Amino acid sequence: MRRRLSRREFLRLGATGGTLAALGLAGFPGPSLARTQLDARIAVVGGGSAGATVARYLKQNAPNLRVTLIEPNETYYTCYAGNWYLGGFRDLETLGHGYDNLRERHGVEVIHDRAEELDLAGKRVLPRNHDPIRYDRLVVAPGIDFDWERIEGIDQDDTEQIPHAWEGGRPFRILREQIKAMDDGGTVIVCPPEDPFRCPPGPYERMALIAHYLKSHKPRAKVLGLDPKDSFSKQSLFKQGWEELYGDMIEWVPGSEGGAPERLSVSDRKVFTDGGAQAHRGDVINFIPPQRAGAIAWKADLVDDSGWCPVDQETFRSQKHDDVYVIGDAAIAGAMPKSAHSANNQGKLVAATIVGELTGEPTPDFPTVNTCYSLVSPEWAFTIAAVFEHRDGEIREVEGSGGLSPEDEDQDFRQIEAIYAPGWYESITKDMFG
């Protein structure tokens, strides 16, 4: 019987990466003859948090597997921890991760190219600039795409003026430079998306950390959140931190009170809400669009009417195509949020599942976990954590596992969690990228 971790144990292990081993998420327990002799080719499309993890752990679990990772970018910039850069206390370059370790230390074949098409009948990936890649099993980690058609007045061509900063790298730099150039007394508008979307607490951490920067450099400025929703992840903890640290610098308007963006005017930087009756002008507007599964998932018919990819939530095998697994933000994963930690766990689970299927060995029965740190300043943080299991056909949270940071903790506890946050980041990105 598995022993349940206390919340403090969970957070301490999560900060050091120990949770992964403690909960059995490192893969198979040791080498076997079947796995060391296994000869099959696995193609992985997408080299973000999920794709990098599954590629690494396929090779770790079965070193003779031929694993090919197809990813267009030579450096992957994480979206998570990007808000720390916007807050002025993290360099953007430290959020970039290359693929040399996966290639040289773990033996993953990395092809920097875009997968233009998936020939699922012929079991081939068709990259733009390389020969077709044949596979025995395919893992698709397509990430997200933006559904621009759901909001009037803005499209992908407008992201230089109205950045979303919901993909790592350049979009964050654009937003950061706009905030730095804004006059004191200006307004930054943050527009979170409708559910579901990548990193549910992210927009609200962003509001706090932009305010952190403004408090020091532009103390008369404001942050306005215009939200289509009436509630959000960690809401009471965020509001507690906002009020304590920033007073009335941050204002959040829920959808039921006229906060839902309905139209944007890019040229004069206005967001229209409440049936168009309210026009909110921002010196800087961070509009985070509604989201759906990445484009390659649509081209390959891996999505359903929700815009996301239905999977068998025990194995992450696609419900639409055999021999295809979909992991990360694009997958419909029950109670698991669309987070980096979830993507990392899903990658390990699928690596173990594929190796077990190819060798006939039983697949390890381990739970999946999620830990998410949110900062409202460099010295004030809180977490949400959970353990998940497959039950009654879907992923469900284990009752009594994890939970939110208590609201009545003192500043010392908040500071400890803020110290743990970068430790979690360094640990999990090392685990993903080798």
UniProtKB/TrEMBL annotation:
Keyword Signal on entry: yes
Keyword field: FAD, Flavoprotein, Oxidoreductase, Signal
Classification via SUPFAM superfamilies: FAD/NAD(P)-binding domain, FAD/NAD-linked reductases, dimerisation (C-terminal) domain
Domain annotation FAD/NAD(P)-binding: ranges: 41-144
Source species, domain of life: Bacteria
Any Pfam family the entry gives: FCSD_central
InterPro entries, alphabetized: FAD/NAD-bd_sf, FAD/NAD-binding_dom, FAD/NAD-linked_Rdtase_dimer_sf, FCSD_central, FlavoCytC_S_DH_flav-bd, FlavoCytC_S_DH_flav-bd_sf, SQRD, TAT_signal
EC number: 1.8.2.-
MF GO annotations: flavin adenine dinucleotide binding; oxidoreductase activity
Signal peptide: none
Gene3D superfamilies xrefs: FAD/NAD(P)-binding domain, Flavocytochrome c sulphide dehydrogenase, flavin-binding domain
Chain ranges of the Sulfide dehydrogenase [flavocytochrome c] flavoprotein chain central domain: 174-289
Residues covered by the Flavocytochrome c sulphide dehydrogenase flavin-binding domain: 367-433
Protein's name in the database: Sulfide dehydrogenase (Flavocytochrome), flavoprotein subunit
